[in-house]
Predict the structure.
Amino acid sequence: MSTHDNHNSDARPGPDRLGTLRRLRHDMVREQIIARGITNARVVRAMARLPRELFLSEALMNQAYSDGALPSMDGQTISQPYIVALMTDRLNLEASHRVLEIGTGTGYQTALLAMLAKKVCTIECHAGLAAQARSRLERLNLKNVEYHVGDGALGWPNGGPFDRIIVSAATERPAAPWLSQLRAGGILVAPIGRAGDIQTLTLFRRGGFGVTSYPIIQCRFVPLV
Protein backbone atom coordinates (compact mmCIF):
# COMPACT_ATOMS: atom_id res chain seq x y z
CA MET A 1 0.00 0.00 0.00
CA SER A 2 2.24 2.75 -1.28
CA THR A 3 1.77 6.17 -2.78
CA HIS A 4 1.37 4.77 -6.31
CA ASP A 5 -0.37 6.99 -8.87
CA ASN A 6 -1.01 9.76 -6.37
CA HIS A 7 -0.67 12.37 -9.10
CA ASN A 8 -3.68 10.80 -10.84
CA SER A 9 -5.72 10.15 -7.71
CA ASP A 10 -8.28 12.87 -8.48
CA ALA A 11 -8.59 12.24 -12.23
CA ARG A 12 -12.15 12.44 -13.55
CA PRO A 13 -13.42 9.47 -15.59
CA GLY A 14 -14.85 10.14 -19.07
CA PRO A 15 -18.59 10.01 -19.87
CA ASP A 16 -18.66 6.35 -20.95
CA ARG A 17 -16.70 5.25 -17.92
CA LEU A 18 -18.93 7.38 -15.68
CA GLY A 19 -21.97 5.51 -16.94
CA THR A 20 -20.33 2.17 -16.25
CA LEU A 21 -19.24 3.25 -12.78
CA ARG A 22 -22.75 4.55 -12.01
CA ARG A 23 -24.22 1.16 -12.89
CA LEU A 24 -21.59 -0.60 -10.77
CA ARG A 25 -22.40 1.74 -7.88
CA HIS A 26 -26.10 0.89 -8.02
CA ASP A 27 -25.22 -2.83 -8.24
CA MET A 28 -22.98 -2.43 -5.19
CA VAL A 29 -25.75 -0.80 -3.18
CA ARG A 30 -28.22 -3.53 -4.11
CA GLU A 31 -25.94 -6.56 -3.78
CA GLN A 32 -23.48 -5.55 -1.05
CA ILE A 33 -25.50 -3.15 1.10
CA ILE A 34 -29.24 -3.82 0.94
CA ALA A 35 -28.82 -7.59 0.50
CA ARG A 36 -26.79 -7.69 3.74
CA GLY A 37 -29.46 -5.98 5.77
CA ILE A 38 -28.67 -2.26 5.54
CA THR A 39 -32.11 -0.78 4.89
CA ASN A 40 -31.79 2.71 6.42
CA ALA A 41 -33.18 4.76 3.53
CA ARG A 42 -30.94 7.78 4.16
CA VAL A 43 -27.77 5.66 4.21
CA VAL A 44 -28.78 3.71 1.10
CA ARG A 45 -29.62 6.87 -0.86
CA ALA A 46 -26.37 8.57 0.16
CA MET A 47 -24.25 5.58 -0.87
CA ALA A 48 -26.09 5.39 -4.19
CA ARG A 49 -25.20 9.04 -4.84
CA LEU A 50 -21.59 9.14 -3.61
CA PRO A 51 -19.01 8.26 -6.32
CA ARG A 52 -16.43 6.06 -4.57
CA GLU A 53 -14.14 6.21 -7.61
CA LEU A 54 -13.33 9.85 -6.81
CA PHE A 55 -11.59 8.66 -3.64
CA LEU A 56 -9.24 6.25 -5.44
CA SER A 57 -6.20 6.49 -7.68
CA GLU A 58 -6.75 6.29 -11.44
CA ALA A 59 -5.29 2.78 -11.42
CA LEU A 60 -7.93 1.55 -8.96
CA MET A 61 -11.04 3.27 -10.32
CA ASN A 62 -12.29 0.11 -12.03
CA GLN A 63 -12.28 -1.61 -8.62
CA ALA A 64 -14.22 1.18 -6.92
CA TYR A 65 -17.29 -0.97 -6.25
CA SER A 66 -15.58 -4.28 -5.50
CA ASP A 67 -16.51 -5.99 -2.25
CA GLY A 68 -13.41 -5.18 -0.24
CA ALA A 69 -10.99 -2.58 1.08
CA LEU A 70 -8.53 -0.92 -1.30
CA PRO A 71 -5.16 0.79 -0.73
CA SER A 72 -4.74 4.54 -0.56
CA MET A 73 -1.68 6.68 0.08
CA ASP A 74 0.66 6.43 3.10
CA GLY A 75 -0.14 2.74 3.68
CA GLN A 76 -3.76 3.47 4.55
CA THR A 77 -6.93 1.98 3.05
CA ILE A 78 -10.42 2.89 1.92
CA SER A 79 -12.78 0.56 3.74
CA GLN A 80 -15.04 -2.06 2.17
CA PRO A 81 -18.35 -0.42 1.11
CA TYR A 82 -20.38 -2.72 3.37
CA ILE A 83 -18.32 -1.82 6.45
CA VAL A 84 -18.72 1.90 5.67
CA ALA A 85 -22.48 1.39 5.32
CA LEU A 86 -22.68 -0.72 8.48
CA MET A 87 -20.80 1.79 10.63
CA THR A 88 -22.88 4.65 9.27
CA ASP A 89 -26.10 2.71 9.81
CA ARG A 90 -25.23 1.92 13.43
CA LEU A 91 -24.58 5.60 14.14
CA ASN A 92 -28.31 6.18 13.49
CA LEU A 93 -27.58 9.68 12.23
CA GLU A 94 -30.07 12.51 12.23
CA ALA A 95 -29.82 15.67 10.15
CA SER A 96 -29.26 17.74 13.32
CA HIS A 97 -26.29 15.71 14.59
CA ARG A 98 -22.73 16.88 15.08
CA VAL A 99 -20.24 14.10 14.35
CA LEU A 100 -16.59 13.59 15.27
CA GLU A 101 -14.64 11.35 12.89
CA ILE A 102 -11.30 9.90 13.98
CA GLY A 103 -9.35 9.12 10.80
CA THR A 104 -10.32 11.12 7.72
CA GLY A 105 -8.46 8.75 5.41
CA THR A 106 -9.48 9.17 1.78
CA GLY A 107 -12.52 11.22 2.81
CA TYR A 108 -15.08 8.67 1.55
CA GLN A 109 -16.60 8.01 4.98
CA THR A 110 -16.32 11.73 5.77
CA ALA A 111 -18.33 12.61 2.68
CA LEU A 112 -21.04 10.13 3.58
CA LEU A 113 -21.28 11.57 7.10
CA ALA A 114 -21.44 15.10 5.71
CA MET A 115 -24.38 14.10 3.51
CA LEU A 116 -26.30 12.83 6.54
CA ALA A 117 -25.39 15.11 9.47
CA LYS A 118 -25.38 18.82 10.25
CA LYS A 119 -21.64 19.10 10.99
CA VAL A 120 -18.61 16.78 10.76
CA CYS A 121 -15.33 17.43 12.56
CA THR A 122 -12.69 15.10 11.14
CA ILE A 123 -9.14 14.42 12.34
CA GLU A 124 -6.31 12.84 10.34
CA CYS A 125 -2.67 12.41 11.39
CA HIS A 126 -1.35 12.16 7.79
CA ALA A 127 -1.19 15.68 6.37
CA GLY A 128 -1.11 14.49 2.75
CA LEU A 129 -4.21 12.34 3.20
CA ALA A 130 -6.03 15.16 4.97
CA ALA A 131 -5.28 17.65 2.20
CA GLN A 132 -6.34 15.24 -0.51
CA ALA A 133 -9.58 14.39 1.30
CA ARG A 134 -10.40 18.06 1.81
CA SER A 135 -9.89 18.76 -1.90
CA ARG A 136 -12.26 15.93 -2.82
CA LEU A 137 -15.01 17.02 -0.43
CA GLU A 138 -14.77 20.63 -1.56
CA ARG A 139 -15.11 19.43 -5.16
CA LEU A 140 -18.32 17.65 -4.06
CA ASN A 141 -19.49 20.96 -2.53
CA LEU A 142 -19.69 19.47 0.98
CA LYS A 143 -19.19 22.53 3.13
CA ASN A 144 -20.26 21.29 6.56
CA VAL A 145 -16.89 19.68 7.38
CA GLU A 146 -14.14 21.03 9.62
CA TYR A 147 -10.67 19.49 9.23
CA HIS A 148 -7.76 19.01 11.61
CA VAL A 149 -4.36 17.34 11.24
CA GLY A 150 -3.23 15.85 14.53
CA ASP A 151 -3.53 13.07 17.09
CA GLY A 152 -6.95 11.47 16.82
CA ALA A 153 -6.63 9.93 20.29
CA LEU A 154 -7.08 13.44 21.73
CA GLY A 155 -10.39 13.95 19.98
CA TRP A 156 -11.56 17.53 19.38
CA PRO A 157 -11.49 19.19 22.83
CA ASN A 158 -12.98 22.52 21.77
CA GLY A 159 -15.64 21.04 19.50
CA GLY A 160 -17.66 18.80 21.80
CA PRO A 161 -19.91 17.50 22.95
CA PHE A 162 -20.69 15.41 19.88
CA ASP A 163 -23.85 13.47 19.17
CA ARG A 164 -21.90 10.75 17.39
CA ILE A 165 -18.26 9.64 17.13
CA ILE A 166 -16.89 7.25 14.51
CA VAL A 167 -13.39 5.76 14.63
CA SER A 168 -11.93 4.46 11.36
CA ALA A 169 -8.84 2.75 12.80
CA ALA A 170 -8.24 -0.12 15.19
CA THR A 171 -7.82 0.70 18.88
CA GLU A 172 -7.67 -1.55 21.93
CA ARG A 173 -10.17 0.62 23.79
CA PRO A 174 -11.99 3.91 23.25
CA ALA A 175 -9.71 6.81 24.20
CA ALA A 176 -10.89 8.64 27.32
CA PRO A 177 -11.16 11.99 25.46
CA TRP A 178 -13.63 10.48 23.00
CA LEU A 179 -15.97 9.35 25.73
CA SER A 180 -15.68 12.69 27.55
CA GLN A 181 -16.54 14.51 24.30
CA LEU A 182 -19.57 12.28 23.60
CA ARG A 183 -22.93 13.76 24.53
CA ALA A 184 -25.14 11.89 27.02
CA GLY A 185 -27.21 9.50 24.94
CA GLY A 186 -24.60 9.65 22.19
CA ILE A 187 -23.16 6.75 20.18
CA LEU A 188 -19.54 5.88 19.38
CA VAL A 189 -18.68 3.18 16.81
CA ALA A 190 -15.12 1.83 16.62
CA PRO A 191 -13.14 -1.32 15.69
CA ILE A 192 -11.80 -2.68 19.00
CA GLY A 193 -8.78 -4.95 19.12
CA ARG A 194 -5.05 -5.19 18.53
CA ALA A 195 -3.50 -4.01 15.29
CA GLY A 196 -2.86 -6.92 12.95
CA ASP A 197 -5.51 -9.09 14.60
CA ILE A 198 -9.18 -9.49 13.83
CA GLN A 199 -11.03 -6.70 15.64
CA THR A 200 -14.64 -6.39 16.77
CA LEU A 201 -16.64 -3.48 15.43
CA THR A 202 -18.33 -2.22 18.58
CA LEU A 203 -21.06 0.30 19.41
CA PHE A 204 -20.71 2.28 22.65
CA ARG A 205 -23.68 4.20 24.03
CA ARG A 206 -23.20 6.79 26.74
CA GLY A 207 -26.09 6.63 29.20
CA GLY A 208 -26.86 8.23 32.53
CA PHE A 209 -24.99 5.51 34.42
CA GLY A 210 -21.94 5.05 32.24
CA VAL A 211 -21.06 3.56 28.87
CA THR A 212 -22.55 0.32 27.52
CA SER A 213 -20.91 -1.60 24.67
CA TYR A 214 -22.51 -3.81 22.02
CA PRO A 215 -20.43 -5.98 19.61
CA ILE A 216 -21.51 -5.73 15.97
CA ILE A 217 -19.24 -7.77 13.69
CA GLN A 218 -15.65 -8.90 13.28
CA CYS A 219 -13.51 -6.67 11.05
CA ARG A 220 -9.96 -5.65 10.21
CA PHE A 221 -8.74 -2.05 10.20
CA VAL A 222 -5.34 -0.39 10.03
CA PRO A 223 -4.12 0.70 13.49
CA LEU A 224 -4.82 4.07 15.02
CA VAL A 225 -1.66 6.19 14.70
Notes: The longest strand covers residues 182-192. The radius of gyration is 16 Å. The chain is about 30% helix and 25% strand. Confidence is low (pLDDT under 50) at residues 1-9.
